[in-house]
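User: I'll paste a sequence; please echo it back and then give the predicted structure.

Assistant: Echoing your sequence first, then the prediction.
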Amino acid sequence: MLEDQVAYLLQRYWGNYVRGLSKEALKISVWQGDVELKNMQLKTEALNALKLPVKVKAGFLGSVKLKVPWSRLGQEPVVVYLDRIYVLAEPATDVERM
């Protein structure tokens, strides 16, 4: 049940940018407040829609770790750790930036 809620929230906020978000991909330590996802592919079309000065060709996210203070949710921040972010990009042309 908790996995369903966490998967829903991750999909809602990160689903546009990352492939592979699912309940099965989650590793949760409820009592410690740890949530971990590993080996996800970045959605290049979503990153390119941000009109950055580069065109993203491929992207990979090794792991995302969330430290969630369950007992103080709303009073303390949720901390997000990103590890092994790989992005293959090239300079964007003027046409791609428009």
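The chain has a mean pLDDT of 86. The helical segments are 2-14, 44-48, 94-97.
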